[in-house]
Amino acid sequence: MRCYFSGEEDSQHYGLPHPRDIEEYPTGIKPMHPSKQELRQALKNRRSAIPLSEREDLSKGICSSLLGMLNGCSPVMVYVSKPPEVNTDSLISALIAKGGRVIVPIIERETVSLRLSYLEDPSVLVESTFHVPEPIGSEIPARPEEVTVAVIPVLGFDRYGNRLGYGAGYYDRFLEKNPNITRIGLAFACQEIPVIPCDANDVKIDIIVTENGVLRCGEDPPSA
């Protein structure tokens, strides 16, 4: 089964056509076999075009939708956002306020991997590697096997669960080593394209939440 939206609505795409309305890649992305780097830059530009105030409002709505889905799940691994990603501050605070346990990733550049820490107080977060807020100096070690659900950042996505990240592969490596984790990506609807080019080491996500609703992902796209 292909992905589907619950609560299908059209969103603004800031001068770009909606990916569901075109057969090729959107304006600003080369239609003839664009590289992943070209896609990343085009999608960064698209996401950055969302006004800050609207991005914050959309983020709160996305996190509110996800919070309802996570009812009873604990612990939950959640990425700590940096602009202009979907802001996860409200999600993290709400999970903690409801008595849930939150695990956040910490980037290890030397080993190109993620280590995990429980987060009990968001005020301990400080800007760290790649400008990502992390609980440096206030870590409470967590183990990957404790994680059942992981909320991860998304730069680009398609309806088949293919995800485009920033290119370093931190999340792909982590998820490949921990295949039983349910993978949930957060993105703005304008970050969708028809098909994400993927490699053998790219790990798909199970669910994508945008301001338009929830996509549940299934089969691969048909071959050309």
Beta-strand fraction estimate: 15-25%
**What is the CATH topology assignment?**
Rossmann fold
Radius of gyration: 17 Å
**CATH class assignment:** Alpha Beta
Placed side by side, the strands forming the largest sheet appear as 6-3-2-1-7-10-11-12
How many strands in all?
A: 12
H/E element order: HHEHEEEEEEEEHEEE
Low-confidence stretches: 1-32
Counting helices, strands and paired strands, the structural category is alpha/beta
Number of helices: 4
Q: What's the number of structural domains?
A: 1
Distance between the termini: 18 Å
Q: By CATH's scheme, which homologous superfamily applies?
A: NagB/RpiA/CoA transferase-like
Oligomer: single chain
Largest sheet properties: 8 strands, mixed
- Based on the coordinates given, report the CATH architecture: 3-Layer(aba) Sandwich
As a percent range, the share of helical residues equals 10-25%
